[in-house]
Amino acid sequence: MFVYTVRTGDSLFAISQKFDVPVDTLRSVNGLAATNIVTGQALLVTSDVYTVQPGDSLWTISRMAYVPLSALRQANPTINPDQLSIGQKINLPTIERRVATHFSYSQLRTPALDQSVISNNAPYLTYIALFETHFNWNGDLSPLNDNAAVLAAWRGRVTPVLTVTNLTAAGFNSALVQRVLNTPSVQQTLIDNMISMATSRGYGGINIDFEGVLPADRNAFVMFLQALKQRTEAANLDLSIAVPAKTNDDVPWVRGYDYAAIGAIVDQFFIMAYDWHYSGSEPGATAPIQLVRETLEFAASLMDRNKIIMGTPFTAMTGRFRFPLRIRVGRSRIKQQLIWQ
Questions:
Q1: What pLDDT was estimated at residue 316?
Q2: Which of 3.40.47.10, 3.30.2290.10, 3.10.350.10, 3.90.550.10 is the CATH number of 2-91?
Q3: Ranges for the LysM domain (predicted)?
Q4: Looking at residues 58-82, what average pLDDT do you find?
């Protein structure tokens, strides 16, 4: 298989003809509800044979197929790499399968919808973090209508994870986190409640999504996670965390997250590798590839890289452009909705 980047003038039908793959297969593999595609969109093509296109070389084909150039040459011993012709067939070597952890969030809505979403995605997941329960000033947790979702996850051989946040009606609240981290009685209540909810409702893990942890609470946050880890281990629960992306430890607004210390504690380290640009910022990429790469390299230098899970955005931003140049960033939308437009 290989990844094809849509070019100007392409259609899904034309791509299916180029590579002798049915349109329905392209749609199914790439999760396309319609046949609309846009220039620059990456499509997975499930074929073991690549048809040479204008401008191709063995090197570019090896990049598209994610195989070493030497392996591609070995799979095509009779081909002269300097004399490729348009329409020529190139055999793609089999890619070595790797075991990866797939960790996804799912917002709880209704039992029927939760069951459907989880059942449809279960074959591709290892963990599913059900979003969310939040705590108050006393360390009490909000109720969840999660029974159907938890059962659907286990039936699909996916581990359901309880997501605990500092969300309020006004958004993520740093003051709530401060109170928990610096008030021992409230912290103990919250930890007790998390363990009780996770075990009594059949979860396999707890995910901490405390956003806006202040630099002053950096060490206290680590100590909280250490205390929680002792309890999750005793209860046979995994402990995971969602953290904001950063390329070094000197980014002021995310100093509250000690990558190295946190990475040594948790079982899964989920990096929210997105939101470099958002509805309140200037226009730009949600997840610039170079910054994503630098974030992963930074994290991998500080902890066991097998714990790291790269979060990818499921949304994109709409925008309005006017001349003289005035740019207004609109609301977040599901990527496929934007492609349909």
A1: 67
A2: 3.10.350.10
A3: 2-45, 48-92
A4: 95
